[in-house]
Design brief:
α1 packs across α2 and α6 packs parallel to α8. With 245 residues, this protein is of the alpha+beta class. It contains eleven helices and five strands; from the N terminus they run ααααββαβαααααββα. It has two domains: 73 residues, no CATH class; 161 residues, Glutaredoxin (3-Layer(aba) Sandwich).
């Protein structure tokens, strides 16, 4: 840990002592002397290590969110207006929540009632569902089935039923849920093999990678990316912010 942090501490020390200088301007002997002082300080003040790590992590997160925001602006149409994506809430709503999710993700299931609560309270919000199966083969199968259900105009009830399902969501369970939702299962299986289904999933994966989304759930509202679960107040605040522009 000391070896990792010493160069950072050394650079900060030199910059503070002489803003126009840098660590490379020190002679080998000066560098050794400064490093010895810093090493001793870090050993006697381990809490400083935590502060440095936290500051570095916060800076990295801020940089990632800034890059994500630029990509979100550039990819606005792909995020919110792709005709291949299912839409919920008010299709003509003035604010769009984009959700990247996986049917086998427990956090996606936990956050679903929160999204539904916001939609119930604000009738002028639309949701774009980005199928983003990242938890293995069964996740991909569930996403393919859900997208194929669009051909029977049953995506939303099937989506809600899959999200509500408790237990191992394998192929048999997916088809059981489909049957219970009123889908023609044999037609569903045929439609799952449509190349457009895999193209939509591949496009979502590529879009997520460009934005920097690596897990589920992930929400985009306006220009903001929220990786991970979100509480009702925060989601509503993001909607209000996006509405104000």
């Amino acid at each position: 840990m000391l070896r990792l942090l010493l160069p950072l501490a050394l650079a900060a020390f030199v910059a503070a002592a002489s803003p126009a200088a840098d660590a490379q301007s020190l002679s080998p002997q000066q560098r050794q002397e400064v490093e010895a002082v810093l090493r001793d300080y870090l050993k006697r003040n381990p809490e400083f290590l935590i502060e440095v790590l936290q500051a570095a992590e916060e800076k990295q997160q801020a940089n990632q969110l800034a890059r994500a925001r630029d990509t979100i602006v550039a990819e606005r149409r792909e995020l919110t207006q792709n005709p291949a994506d299912p839409v919920g809430g008010n299709p003509k709503g003035d604010v769009t929540i984009v959700e990247f999710f996986d049917y086998r993700c427990p956090y996606c299931k936990q956050v679903k009632p929160i999204v539904e609560q916001v939609l119930k309270q604000d009738r002028n919000v639309r949701v774009v569902y980005k199928e983003f199966p990242i938890l293995g083969r069964d996740s991909v199968y569930a996403s393919r089935a859900a997208l194929a259900a669009m051909k029977q105009d049953k995506y939303l009830p099937f989506h809600h039923a899959l999200m509500a399902y408790r237990g191992q969501l394998g192929e048999e369970a997916v088809m059981t849920v489909a049957r219970q939702t009123g889908l023609d299962v044999e037609r569903l299986k045929r439609d799952m093999d449509n190349p457009a289904v895999e193209q939509t999933i591949a496009a979502n994966r590529a879009l997520a990678e460009r934005i920097g989304i690596r897990g589920t759930p992930a929400f985009i509202v306006g220009d903001d990316l929220v990786p991970g679960a979100v509480d009702p107040g925060s989601l509503k605040a993001l909607v209000d912010k996006a509405r104000k522009g």
